[in-house]
Amino acid sequence: MLKPPGHLKDAGTALWQSIAEEYSIADSGGLALLTIAAECLDRLRSAQRQLDAEGEVVKDRYGGLKAHPAVAIEKDSRNGLMASLKQLNLDIEPLRDSRGNPGMEGFGVRR
Question: Is 66 exposed, middle or buried (0-12, 13-18, 19+ CB in 10 A)?
Answer without folding.
Answer: exposed
